[in-house]
Structure formats: structure tokens, C-alpha cells
Specification:
By secondary structure, the chain is an alpha/beta fold. It is built from 9 helices and 12 strands.
Length: 256
């Protein structure tokens, strides 16, 4: 979802709950550089969770309170494997997006997500760049087979999870993060930093990777378009994304 696809009702509900002094945090698989666009569009400040839980930080100030980067040696091996198998691999640091050349993948990043890559030979990544996430963006059977080969090769060294974007239903976005990275880990780090408990958290999500957060929060809400197994572990099921399910949940539990 892009920032301009967020409904007016959802925007109004988020603004209303913020006026009550309740902190609103984005929790996304996106990099901070792309997630920031949605944060800014909603008028949010403070800390948010990015990279499927690989980093918690404030995209406006650059403050990072929690990060689980990829090991440099694993990044080097992943780059070599991608080269040998003709796999398009993107890399993201806390503040940067890197690609080795222009492709249909960078076109999507630029045209839909609004970010421009820094084109660089991955053998010469600056030592100062700590890579938080890699991404395999695949659509053809050959590309999807390559992603599966990558997953098997790095089993135990990397964690891969697939996401989809409604605008590109035939494209798989495969997040590549360090072992143990999860949205739950990021949430634990965030509530600790804010000095609150999980009982004081309402979490809303629609993905399988949202399940640990939904089940851990004091109030876990599944979107109406979520898979059945997500709905089963939620305390409440709201409307779907096309019918402003976020607004419905906020009004029911936080504004009533």
C-alpha cells in the first residue's frame, strides 16, 4: 500500500487517537526509507518498526533504539550466490537502498514506492553501511525458483519471508533478514524503550508475520482480509482494508 491509498476514514481515526495522546507506531516489512513516506503521510512522529522487525527507530531524527543487522560475512556470501545464480538482490541499510544496476525491480521501487537506489558494486559496499535487510523481488517461474534455491542455500544463516503488494499481484517480495528477527522482537524492544507493557498495546495486522504481535498485544486485532489462521488468534476481527478496518477498530476500542 502506498501513502495515497490510505482511506480518509483511516487517516481521520489515526489523527483522532493521536490527539488523545496515544502513540501510533507503524510495524512493517518495509525499509525505513520507504516506510517513512507512510509515517509522514499520516503525520506520525516517534518510533516505528521496520524491516519485519529488524530495526526500531525514528525516521525523522535518525535515532535507532534497536537493530538486528545481517552479518557482513553472510552478506558477502549472499552477494556471491546471487551473482552466480543471476538473482536480483537488493540491499537496505537503516537509511539507504542499494542495487547493482537498473532493472524492472528498481523501476517498481522508483515508480510505486518513490525511492531511488544508490547503484553500487556490492563487492564495494562502504564498511560504514550496516545491512539490515536484503530483498528478492521475483515474478517469473525462473526467478521464483532462484529465490527458493537461495532460501535452501542459506537455511539457518538467513530468514526469508514473502510479502505481496496488491498493485503487483504477480510479484513476490521476499524479505531477507537475520535469524531470529521478528515483529514481536521489535515490539518487545519498543515497549521497553517507551516504558510501557504489552498489555497497553493494541496491534492491528493482516499478515502471517503479524501473528506474533497480534497474539502478544493486550488487544490483538486482525483485519477482515487476513488469513483465517490470523483471525483465529486475534481478540477481534475488524473490517477489511478496503472498508477502513483500521478506523473501525480504533473507533471501537480507543475512541468510544
Amino acid at each position: 500500500m502506498r501513502a495515497d491509498e490510505i482511506s480518509a476514514a483511516d487517516r481521520a481515526a489515526v489523527a483522532a487517537v493521536r490527539k488523545r495522546g496515544i502513540h501510533v507506531s507503524l510495524c512493517t516489512g518495509r525499509a525505513m526509507v520507504t516506510g517513512r513516506l507512510i509515517v509522514e503521510s499520516l503525520g506520525l512522529d516517534g518510533y516505528h518498526m521496520f524491516f519485519d522487525g529488524g530495526l526500531v527507530g525514528d525516521p525523522h531524527t535518525g535515532e535507532i533504539v534497536y537493530a538486528r543487522p545481517l552479518r557482513p560475512d553472510v552478506v558477502r556470501r549472499a552477494v556471491e550466490f546471487a551473482h552466480q545464480n543471476r538473482i536480483i538482490l537488493d540491499l537496505f541499510s537503516a537509511f539507504g537502498y542499494f542495487a547493482e544496476g537498473e532493472s524492472w525491480v528498481t523501476d517498481i521501487r522508483r515508480d510505486y514506492f518513490g525511492i531511488v537506489p544508490k547503484i553500487i558494486d556490492f563487492h564495494h559496499l562502504p564498511d560504514s553501511e550496516s545491512i539490515i535487510k536484503g530483498t528478492l523481488v521475483v515474478r517469473s517461474p525462473e526467478e521464483k525458483a532462484g529465490a527458493e534455491k537461495f532460501r535452501r542455500h542459506f537455511d539457518g544463516d538467513l530468514t526469508l519471508s514473502m510479502t505481496v503488494t496488491p498493485a503487483f499481484p504477480d510479484v513476490d517480495f521476499v524479505n531477507v533478514v537475520a535469524p531470529g528477527v521478528s515483529k514481536r522482537g521489535a515490539l518487545d524492544a519498543l515497549v521497553k524503550h517507551l516504558g510501557i507493557s504489552l498489555d497497553q498495546v493494541m496491534a492491528i495486522g493482516d499478515g502471517v508475520n503479524d501473528m506474533p504481535v497480534i497474539s502478544a498485544a493486550g488487544l490483538g486485532v486482525a483485519m477482515g482480509n487476513a488469513p483465517d489462521k490470523v483471525k483465529k488468534i486475534a481478540s477481534h476481527v475488524t473490517l477489511d482494508a478496503d472498508h477502513s478496518g483500521v478506523a473501525e477498530a480504533i473507533k471501537k476500542f480507543l475512541l468510544s
